[in-house]
Amino acid sequence: MKFFSELNQFMLMGARAHARWELDMSNTILHDRKRLIILALLIVPILIGGISFAEELVGSMPAMLGGKNAYAPAFYTPTIFFASIGVGIVAGLITGCIGAGGGFIIAPALMSVGVKGILAVGTDLFHIFAKAIMGSVLHRKLGNVCVGLAMVFLIGSVGGATLGGWVNRTLYEKNPVLSDAFITTIYVLMLGFLCTYALMDFFRSQKAASAQKKSGSTAAVASMTATAQKLQSINLPPMIKFDEGVTPGGRKISWLFLVISGFIVGMAAAIMGVGGGFLTFPIFVYTLGVSSATTVGTDIFQIIFTAGYAGLSQYAVHGFIFYTLAMGMLLGSLFGIQIGSLITKVVSGPTICGLYAVATSAGFINRAFALPSKLASMEYISMSAATGKTLETVGSYIFFIVLGSFAIWVFYIFFTNISVLKGEGHAHTAKGVK
Q: Which residues lie across from 189 on neighbouring strands?
């Protein structure tokens, strides 16, 4: 139990590091006129061109590269673009308010409205990569990156992303329903783990006001775990040195363990359509014994390259990216994260912990309710089509009602506390002038 509790804390740290990175990128883009113009130039042609010629494209390119006839650009409509903005806003609100990457709700949301799982995964990866390129805040984080550590890790992550992308494409070509079932199962397992421990943390924080501070402190990760000490004691060349600025003399570990770690993270990122930060933290800190400071920088570094490689080489070139959705989500998330980050100034810590538990639980319920119908379609379980459809519909309603309520609540807090937020903004400005 202690192991799983610590693992959850490290996963949460990774999600929070990803959230801080997304906020940095959002601020960089929104505060730079040139970047905003570039964003408009990316969105407008895709939207206008896609809407104007959607029917012609579907008719003239039924065998679109990488696509199945039934699932090619069938959803290429203005409605889906504006819906994607809504998805991006909610994901941004979750990222900014909770301080944890909101990407875990994007794939379930897209799949719930009819987008095939492989398109949802590829689109989310491209959305992450596009935001990273436009934000280009990597230089701010390089102080915490051990370049050697990052490059060896990327050797593994590229290999893992290649395998993960191949698995998704192979399953899709064999049977699109099997592909959806596979991606849904991975999400059920991952979100089930996250929401279980998020709920446990929330109830603990309700019992003791100090629980959240303890869970967020770095004391638990100041010293290496027994696993990390054992791995670092294995002298298996080539060895790589890191954390010289954290520990006298630094630390060493074999390339092999780094490559394996990168492989796991890259495969998970390519299969789920996420950055992989929630896995990088527990692997680096708990298993490899890397300091949390170095882990943050390396995590940001690997997200950009892993998401970029997986999105472009494993999905884009095979036609599995929905560019209209990606641009809509990018646009929505830029603004959602701003509002979400502001209300953390007027919301208590235990409340934020509870919101994280609710958000992950909603994603888990959504995919858990969708799984039976997919398994029944492949005759893995016995269930009528009507029952499976009902379960899937119920799961979708619960999911969107919870996320919609969350968004309404955040906007309510924001608008009812505008005067307070403005006052804090002026106070910070004045303090900065001094």
A: none
E strand residue ranges, 219-320? 239-242, 251-254
Give every CB contact of residue 424 below 8 A, 6+ residues apart in sequence.
345
User: What is the C-alpha separation between 273 and 120, in angstroms, rounded?
Assistant: 7
Paired tokens of 251: 């630390």
Of 168, 161, 189, nearest to 264 (Cα)? Answer: 161
- Which residues does residue 253 pair with via DSSP β-bridges, in sequence order? 240
> What is the four-CA torsion angle of 390, 396, 402, 404, rounded to 10 degrees?
-130
Distance CA 134, CA 39 (A): 8
**Which residue type is seen at 100?**
A
36-49 core/surface letters (b: 16 or more CB in 10 A; e: else)? eeebeebbeebbee
The predicted structure's pLDDT at residue 84: 82
Find, among 266, 285, 284, 286, the residue nearest to 276 by Cα.
266
Report the C-alpha gap between 296 and 365 in whole angstroms.
Answer: 30
pLDDT of residue 3: 64
Supply the range of the domain harboring residue 152: 2-433
385: its two tokens: 């089509």
pTM of the predicted structure, to 2 decimals: 0.79
Q: CA-to-CA distance for 135 and 330, rounded, in angstroms? A: 11
Given the structure tokens 């692997």, which residue do they identify?
A: 283
280, 135 contact by CB (below 8 A) = no
Residue 190 half-sphere exposure toward CB, CA atoms < 13 A: 23
* Rounded distance between C-alpha atoms, residue 199 and residue 205, angstroms: 10
Number of domains within the chain? 1
pLDDT at 140: 52
Ramachandran angles phi, psi of 240, nearest 5°: -125, 140
Mean pLDDT, each 10-residue run in order, the chain (434 residues): 65 70 80 81 63 47 42 53 83 75 77 85 86 64 70 92 93 88 90 79 64 44 72 88 77 91 91 77 82 76 84 86 82 84 73 76 90 88 88 91 86 83 53 41
State the Rg of the chain over Cα: 22
